[in-house]
Design goal:
566 residues, mainly beta, ten-stranded mixed sheet, 46 strands
Length: 566
Amino acid sequence: MNKVFVAVVAFLFTTMLPIQTEAQRLANPFDFPIQLSGGFCDLRANHYHAGIDIRTKSSEGHAMHAVQKGYISRVSVSPWGYGLAIYITHPDDNLITVYGHLQQFNQRITEIVKEKQYENESYYVNIKFEPDALPVKQGDLIGYSGNSGSSGGPHLHFEVRDMQTNELIDPLIFYKSYIPDTRKPLVRGLKIYPTEGKGMVNGNNKKQNIEFKLNKNDHPVISATIEAWGEIGLGIRAIDRMDGTGFSYGIKDILLTVDSIEMFRSHTDRFSLEESKYINSYTDYEEWSDKRIFYIKTFVDPGNRTQFIASRNSGKINIDEERIYNILITLTDIYGNACKVPIKIKGKKQDITPPDTIGTKLMRWYDYNSFSTKGIRLTFPRNSLYNSIYMHHNTSFVKERFSLTHTLHNTPVPLHTPAQLSIYLDSAFTSTNTDQFGIVRITNSSGKMSWVGGTFRDGWIDAEINELGTYTVTCDTTPPVIRPIDPGKWREKKKISIRITDNLSGISVYRGEIDGKYALFEYDGKNALISYTFDNERLHPGYHRLKLTVTDGCGNKSTYEYSFTW
């Protein structure tokens, strides 16, 4: 067996052993039992889930405690991402713990944050602290659970990081004893992938579903005959379950063997933030893009450098003999609960269909690539592609748009490093306000436009894109919409609430003022809501004048003014 493969597998299983022996160091952050709604390295859009999601009884405001002694090293506030978040460094343990989506901080942190927000005149803050500024002991109150940022419901997003490398570590290594689990992973789908120009399956060179049924023990049983020749790969759609919940989680360990020889293994104990985007290669991106379904590929694209994967021959199976190949995929969770998927593939000689290269340009995954034709220029940095492709390009004309519409490739292709896209703006519009033009991506299935943006340069709009797809230029001349929510009750509620929305380029900047001075409006991005809580230290009783200005990504501006007494 390949010595490098053996060494990597051994590394994957030994790097975490010192931590596992000290697994009782971290306490429960809450006063109630831990139950998860999300697991470590669960599959998400464009990233792996960086921690675990701890349920908070479907409500906010639960007291949250430091899980170990250390010091608060960072506090951040954002309408997106982790929302209100605390980072605690634990020098004795070489760890950092992260607490995201909080409702509010404890009183001391709240005072520091508000002071910085008014100093910067910005809701967004990212404050770092020296070790002696905010020390904590295990069990100290640090804040209250919430639903801030990009959270989809009340919970605590909790992370554990290696202090030296900043790598993310599976928190369940520390919390297995808190959470019982006897349930094994479940298979939801199987696919087989002939390598383009090198493999065939059942007389076809396209990926195919493998039909199966579940037996009484929920193990997949495949009865159909699979005939293949040349180089192929396999993909699996699967979930894990835990006792006492209806939530689904990612798969901790995936092992592929062919005739008892290990060909592929992924073991998700840790990963770096820089690796997270490799999920677009670890999974079948086309399936995710078109159907919002994750299939994990048990083979490795040449541009995928995920460190928790070890493989032999990149996990590809070479069918070059007319015989039965016995394949086994084993899915195992962190508790050792396992599901086995046996697959038999019959080797049968078949003529291999060559790649479709007519009217295409070869883009090599490891190289600098460029493409240009009428109305478009596209450049790829090195290593931006996960695999080489023969790129197709088509154009169409839509009367309501301001350039040709360009379709880059016939299937969705993710880019690890953004490509530079330039589209020529119809010369009839270059004399107008070019700041209001931008590139948009069009979803083929729905026709929905997603703003990419860009800058005008000598008749062209330049922007960065993160995937190949359909792009054109449009114009945003519509200012944001400001909708006050029940202003007659602001005084009673001691709170001003206003909804701010934009039709295309998105909210870029907002500023609230009361009596001509900056007022701190908190921003809940997912609900498009900003709010100001009456501040006795800064807002005195009497007559006041509110002014709110909201600007979108193209510079379109709206203003709202209102008089009130307090």
